[in-house]
């Protein structure tokens, strides 16, 4: 009997030691009672998402996904894949999140998206390589249970010359058809800004399962009407959303676009989901939302639209939670009521501005106040997006600061940053026209 027991033991151990591979999740977009519905394994699924850049490195993906799940987020969106994408998919799956996996296609003009550009009219070999690269990514990730769908291309039509738009849209159709041959278990969308992609998709890219629309500010309240006027019958998702963007913002007296106040940013997200999109989801037109952006970047875009700044939480963090769960902040967030820039003077140590800041938290406790600047007139893309800390010291009267101005020519965007003890960061901006340096 001993040999029998040994064989049984070995067999049992083999079963125990075989790794458990999660079952592939099947996603589909179907019509139910005349309404479009996103389904995962046959069950209705509404994407309550954020776009995802991460808080730091891939080592933080576990923590990132856990924190986002606690905010009511169920889906992440990426723009492309990297060597760390599988780590993100693993972390997302562990915490019950799905991922709209981005498959990057090159932009169609210089100056767009890291200054990359591609000729969709003439570069046949380049298109062949992009197709091969895209299919390789699909093969690599298609069986991961965290994959919700594929998002092919981001704002390429927006960033393409008019004579190349048709060529790109036709190429996109070719890519989509080949992706679907490899993977019938996940829908395919493409993403563009506002309505710029719609006419081209409608005419030349019929294989798309749904349209991804990037829209900001009040546009979220009118996009459904614009899609209806264009005769769009396919479902759609809002693939980027946040407060009014710089490209739409009115300029102040110094020619600097006015950034919305923190309270406006917060309200835009909550209102956008509840009042603009929820009725469209119910009507079977919209499949979900992705708020831009889960990132901790301390730069122009990060401070305007990000959910984090370093380790500090920004208004969008709390707004996402309220939008998706109804939960408001436990205590009111810190506020900066006013910023007033007084005299700008030069001495042998540099150029200094007197700045009065009215800021407080809910309990009236002092806030950690600091200053930074951005120079949108800089000559390079990196410099235009960079936010640089400024030296400051308390002024001679309460709530005033002497802030050392940078040595640049022209108007700068001045940031006042105020952090409370709970790690919530408030921000307010104004502009300063700097005098010529001596």
From TrEMBL:
Signal peptide: none
Glycoside hydrolase family 2 catalytic domain boundaries: 62-243
InterPro entries noted in UniProt: GH (IPR017853), Glyco_hydro_2_cat (IPR006103)
A biological-process GO annotation: carbohydrate metabolic process
Any one GO molecular-function label of the UniProt entry: hydrolase activity, hydrolyzing O-glycosyl compounds
Lineage: superkingdom: Bacteria
Designated name of the protein: Glycoside hydrolase family 2 catalytic domain-containing protein
Native source species: Archangium violaceum Cb vi76
